[in-house]
Design goal:
The structure holds 2 protein chains of 2 kinds. Chain A is mainly α. Chain A has one domain. Helix content of chain A is about 70%, strand content about 0%. Chain A has 17 helices and 2 strands. Chain A is globular. Chain B is of the alpha+beta class. Chain B has a domain of about 70 residues. Chain B is built from 6 helices and 4 strands. In chain B, strands 2-3-1-4 form a 4-stranded antiparallel sheet, with helices on one face. In chain B, helix 4 runs antiparallel to helix 5. Chain B is elongated, with a radius of gyration of 25 Å. The relative contact order of chain B is 0.25. Classes of the chains: A mainly alpha, B alpha+beta.
């Protein structure tokens, strides 16, 4: 029983273990084991198998970072309506430490994954010269050091914001709110820059000859969108749990999630098109090569598939107000977005390894399940024993009776 | 006599009468709207310095027509902008720009986007003016000097009275619901 403003709500602490945790651990273990087996017998496919793992890693980590960024943005904006969702953002962000462990295959597999680690003699003289020029940034110690810095930022930010939030659960008072607002605002530049450079390091450098300054924003928007989509799925799944946050979420809250998905679908398209249009119109070989590969054969089909499924369909369905008020319909679109975001990340990485045409290896799916399973299990484990919403937040009462203007 | 009768036949314009009630907070105003409607007063409105959360619902307003107007404006801007460029660049005056085709969709998209947003927002702006019957240089509420606080810190409820009502029931109800000041104003008819 918790007093929230004039009313009283009854909330349970999340029990340890549970079905979600067991399933996630099982899927995680099986997924990563199968991926490892696939890699062991992979032979010439090994770089692609590792690339599939990289995509899965970037996918789930991106969502966890995006959750921290959402949380920080809401603190910076002093937003009240989302207080009911805040613990979910904090719990998603709490998955970040497990990715330090999951980063090991990437760190160990660098020579297989990134062509700039050991420039091969099949590269042209110009390409070798270009890599030499970029070696100041693209070198192994620098790569690992930067990864350590990124992880340090993400872990510290999440630890601070989540720590003060949990402390408020125990002690109440306004000091945690003051702290979270300060740290949230202060963390934003660090979060924004670190996710941008992480995208350069981990995803863009798979093709070390190409560069795009907007690439970080591209990865960031997709992750941002997927984070809200995942939150929507979780919310809809728990909406009948009267003693968890989902039971307190109203149609006005989920309507807002739909609006945010609409906005970030449009923003993803804006960023994706900005990158394409500037490169297309300038038509400079060093920039255009990336799209040349992606505008023929199977990769072109994937690109057109993305325009239709990542923009046209979600955008025009989410325009509907009726859909945004319909929890099941909204959850369907959210799952849709989560799937096409994965296709999108594959489309970013794989053409660099297979310029000759479409390629798919089954370990891409097992990697997704493996990394996702571990990330969800870890987040669920850390969330256990806590309330699923910040029960003593001074703005919780405002959030619970939130209605739109 | 004839003159007077004719005047009478026109049913001399009768100004509308409103009960205006000021509430301390937006929440109190929204709550009051529900209660006032329960008592059968249908013609009510709110006047507040900023949009009230839940205000639409409290007033029992249906869905706004603005989204449709916006969609129509946006689509007109989208097709209008794109077709304008196709006409100019590909048909009326084709120019070879760096070897790109005269009809080059990627380079048309930014302007299409801009014309979509432009016509969409203009249609919202003018559509709203029409729907709200603005500009409205005179309204009965302006008869009350204190009503000026509606743009500052006053949350006002207005109840348009049916003909023949003196508004005592509405005024009493508003006071009972916690209104800080209640007045009855009459439209001046010149």
């Amino acid at each position: 029983m918790v007093e929230v403003g004039p009313t009283t709500i009854t909330q349970d602490r999340l029990k340890p273990g549970g079905k979600t945790f067991s399933i996630a651990v099982g899927v995680g273990v099986v997924g990563l084991l199968l991926t490892a087996v696939g890699y062991a017998v992979g032979g010439a496919d090994r770089p692609s198998i590792l690339a599939g793992y990289l995509v899965a890693f970037a996918y789930w980590l991106g969502i966890a970072i995006a959750a921290s960024i959402w949380n920080a943005i809401f603190h910076a904006a002093a937003a009240r309506w989302m207080t009911v969702f805040r613990r979910v953002f904090e719990s998603m962000g709490a998955a970040i430490p497990i990715f330090i462990l999951l980063f090991l295959p990437i760190a160990l597999g660098m020579p297989v994954l990134f062509p700039w680690v050991n420039p091969s003699n099949r590269m042209s003289h110009e390409q070798l010269h270009l890599l030499q020029h970029k070696a100041l940034w693209l070198n192994v110690p620098g790569f690992l050091l930067r990864a350590a810095v990124y992880f340090a930022i993400w872990v510290v930010v999440n630890q601070l914001l989540r720590g003060w939030s949990l402390r408020q659960d125990r002690e109440g008072g306004l000091e945690p709110t003051r702290r979270m607002r300060r740290y949230g605002s202060g963390a934003l530049p660090f979060l924004g820059l670190s996710i941008t450079f992480a995208a350069f390091d981990w995803l863009m450098s798979v093709d070390p000859f190409w560069f795009s300054t907007i690439f970080g924003a591209y990865y960031f928007t997709g992750s941002f969108l997927s984070c809200i989509a995942l939150l929507t799925v979780i919310t809809v799944l728990t909406r009948h749990e009267q003693r968890l946050f989902g039971g307190l979420v109203t149609r006005h809250h989920t309507h807002n999630l739909g609006k945010l998905m609409l906005a970030f679908t449009a923003f993803w398209t804006y960023i994706a098109f900005s990158q394409f249009m500037l490169i297309w119109i300038a038509n400079i070989p060093e920039e255009a090569s990336w799209y040349v590969v992606r505008m023929k054969g199977g990769w072109q089909s994937v690109g057109i598939f993305l325009i239709v499924t990542h923009f046209i369909i979600p955008f025009f369905t989410l325009l509907s107000r009726g859909l945004k008020f319909n929890p099941r319909g909204l959850a369907f679109v959210a799952v849709w977005i989560l799937v096409v975001h994965w296709v999108d990340l594959n489309w970013l990485v794989f053409p660099a390894l297979h310029p000759e045409g479409f390629y798919f290896h089954w370990t891409a799916i097992t990697s997704m399940l493996g990394v996702g399973g571990f990330a969800i299990a870890f987040a669920r484990w850390r969330a256990a024993g806590h309330f699923t919403l910040p029960v003593k937040d001074p703005y919780l009462a405002d959030s619970l009776r939130y209605q739109q203007a | 006599m004839e003159h007077a009768a004719e005047h009478h036949g026109h049913a001399a314009p009768v100004g509308k009468t409103y009960v205006l009630a000021r509430f301390e907070t937006g929440e109190a105003l929204v709550d009051a709207c529900y209660k006032v409607r329960e008592k059968g007063f249908e013609s009510i409105d709110t006047h507040s310095p900023y949009p009230l959360h839940g205000g639409d619902e409290a007033l029992g307003l249906g869905r706004s027509r603005v989204p449709r107007i916006a969609l129509a404006g946006g689509l007109a801007g989208m097709f209008g902008g794109y077709l304008m460029m196709v006409y100019m660049n590909a048909w009326n005056w084709p120019i070879n720009v760096g070897g790109r085709p005269p009809h080059a969709p990627p380079s048309f998209i930014p302007i299409t986007f801009e014309t979509t947003v432009l016509l969409c927002s203009l249609s919202i702006f003018f559509g709203l003016l029409v729907l709200m019957r603005l500009p409205q240089p005179y309204h009965a509420a302006f008869e009350l000097e204190q009503f000026r606080s509606a743009v500052n810190d006053g949350f006002w409820l207005s109840v348009a009275l049916p003909p023949g009502s003196d508004g005592k029931d509405a005024a009493a109800l508003a006071s009972q619901l916690g209104a800080k000041e209640v007045s009855t104003v009459k439209e001046s008819v010149e």
